[in-house]
C-alpha cells in the first residue's frame, strides 16, 4: 500500500492507493497555513496521516505533490508557494526520518496533474504534451518523451510568469510577486503576467470589480450562471479570458509543438470553457498554416489528478514502470 498526499493551501488531501493507482481510501486534514506555522507543524500533520496507516498496513512508500519548484532527485522544495516555511527544505529527508525510512518521492502539484494525464489520462497515447492548470495561478507541465521537462532550475512549465501585454512604462511599477502574501495585490500591480490575466482567481477578481461586489461572492460556477442569464459585461470579461488563453496556447504550440495541449483546473469542468478557447484558437490559426496542427483537449482528471500524478512520479523515481 502506498500513501499518496496532495498538499494544497487549505487542505492536505491523502489517499491509500495500490501501485496500479486504485484508490482504497481518501481523507483530508487542514494544511498548517496560519501566521506563525512552521515546518515542524507541517511534518506533524504528515506524520499524523502516516501513523494512521502504519499499524494496520505496511506503507511501502509515500508519494507527495506540493507547491513550489521541486528538486525531484534530492527531495528539496524551493519556494513552496503560500507555504513559505517549505522553502529550501529537504522534505524528502525529513519525512523519511520521521516515517520509518520508507521511500519518499516529491513533485510539483501542476506537474503531478500533467503526469496523471500521461499515465492514465488524455496524454497516455502521445509522447509530447503540455498541460495547463488554471486555479489560483497557472500551473503547467511540459511533457517530453513521456517525462516531465523541468529545466535547470525546475522552472519549466511555470506558466504564471509568462508575460502578456507588458510595455516599457510598466517597468517603472513592477512589484515582486514574493513581496506580498496577498495574491490580489499582484493582479493590479503586475497585471501583465499570466497569473494576473488567465488564472481563475484573476477572472473572479475582474468580475467582482466590474460588478462592485466582494470577491468572496464570486466563483467560476456563478460566472457561468451570469453569462447564461445574459450578463453581457461578464460575458465580455470571460471572452477576454478565453482569448488570452488561446494566444498562450498558440505560443506554446509554436515553441515546443506538443501533440496535444490539455487544459485543467476546476473551471475546465464547464464545457463552455474549452469551447470558448477553441473558438479563438481557430481564428488565430488563420495567421499561418504553422498553427494548423494545434490540438486542444480537457484534462481527464480533475479532483484526483494530483494523487495519480504523484504516485506515477514515485514509480518513475524508483524505476517501477
Characterization of the model:
This protein has 9 helices and 13 strands. The radius of gyration is 20 Å and the shape is globular. The two termini are 16 Å apart. The strands form 3 sheets. A 5-stranded mixed beta sheet has the order 3-2-1-4-8, with helices on both faces. Helix 3 packs across helix 9 (305-317), helix 5 packs antiparallel against helix 7 and helix 7 (232-256) packs across helix 8. It is α/β, with parallel strands linked by helices. It folds into 2 domains: 2-112 and 304-317, 2-Layer Sandwich (Nucleotidyltransferase, domain 5), CATH 3.30.420; 124-298, ATPase, nucleotide binding domain (Nucleotidyltransferase, domain 5, 2-Layer Sandwich).
Nutshell version of this structure?
This protein is an alpha/beta fold.
List keywords for this structure.
five-stranded mixed β-sheet, Nucleotidyltransferase, domain 5, 321 residues, 20% strand, 13 strands, 2 domains, alpha/beta, 9 helices, 36% helix
Query: Helical content, roughly?
Result: 25-40%
The N- to C-terminal Cα distance equals 16 Å
Poorly predicted ranges = none
CATH class of the largest domain: Alpha Beta
| Overall geometric form | globular
Overall pLDDT score: 93
Residue fraction in strands: 15-25%
**Counted beta strands:** 13
Neighbour order of strands in the largest sheet: 3-2-1-4-8
Number of helices: 9
CATH topology of the largest domain: Nucleotidyltransferase, domain 5
Q: Could you say what the CATH architecture of the largest domain is?
A: 2-Layer Sandwich
- The name of the CATH superfamily of the largest domain reads ATPase, nucleotide binding domain
Main beta sheet strand tally, sense and closure: 5 strands, mixed
Amino acid at each position: 500500500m502506498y500513501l499518496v498526499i496532495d498538499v494544497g493551501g487549505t487542505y492536505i488531501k491523502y489517499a491509500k492507493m495500490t501501485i496500479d493507482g486504485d484508490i482504497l481510501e481518501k481523507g483530508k486534514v487542514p494544511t498548517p497555513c496560519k501566521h506563525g506555522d512552521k515546518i515542524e507543524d507541517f511534518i506533524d500533520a504528515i506524520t499524523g496521516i502516516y501513523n494512521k496507516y502504519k499499524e494496520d498496513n505496511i506503507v511501502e512508500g509515500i508519494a507527495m505533490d506540493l507547491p513550489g519548484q521541486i528538486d525531484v532527485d534530492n527531495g528539496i522544495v524551493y519556494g513552496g508557494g503560500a507555504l513559505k516555511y517549505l522553502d529550501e527544505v529537504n522534505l524528502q529527508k525529513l519525512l523519511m526520518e520521521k516515517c520509518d525510512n520508507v521511500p519518499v518521492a516529491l513533485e510539483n502539484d501542476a506537474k503531478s496533474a500533467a503526469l496523471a494525464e500521461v499515465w492514465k489520462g488524455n496524454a497516455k497515447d502521445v509522447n509530447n504534451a503540455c498541460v495547463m492548470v488554471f486555479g489560483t495561478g497557472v500551473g503547467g507541465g511540459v511533457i517530453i518523451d513521456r517525462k516531465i521537462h523541468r529545466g535547470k532550475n525546475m522552472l519549466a512549465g511555470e506558466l504564471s510568469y509568462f508575460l502578456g501585454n507588458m510595455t516599457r512604462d510598466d517597468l517603472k511599477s513592477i512589484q515582486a510577486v514574493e513581496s506580498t502574501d496577498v495574491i490580489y495585490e499582484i493582479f493590479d500591480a503586475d497585471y501583465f503576467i499570466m497569473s494576473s490575466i488567465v488564472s481563475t482567481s484573476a477572472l473572479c477578481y475582474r468580475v467582482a470589480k466590474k460588478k462592485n461586489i466582494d470577491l468572496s461572492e464570486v466563483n467560476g460556477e456563478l460566472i457561468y450562471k451570469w453569462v447564461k442569464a445574459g450578463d453581457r459585461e461578464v460575458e465580455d470579461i470571460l471572452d477576454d479570458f478565453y482569448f488570452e488563453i488561446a494566444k498562450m496556447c498558440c505560443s506554446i504550440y509554436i515553441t515546443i509543438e506538443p501533440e496535444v495541449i490539455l487544459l485543467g483546473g476546476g473551471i475546465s469542468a464547464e464545457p463552455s470553457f474549452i469551447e470558448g478557447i477553441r473558438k479563438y484558437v481557430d481564428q488565430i490559426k488563420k495567421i499561418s498554416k504553422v498553427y494548423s496542427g494545434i490540438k486542444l483537449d480537457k484534462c481527464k482528471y480533475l479532483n484526483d489528478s494530483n494523487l495519480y500524478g504523484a504516485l506515477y512520479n514515485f514509480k518513475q523515481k524508483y524505476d517501477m514502470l
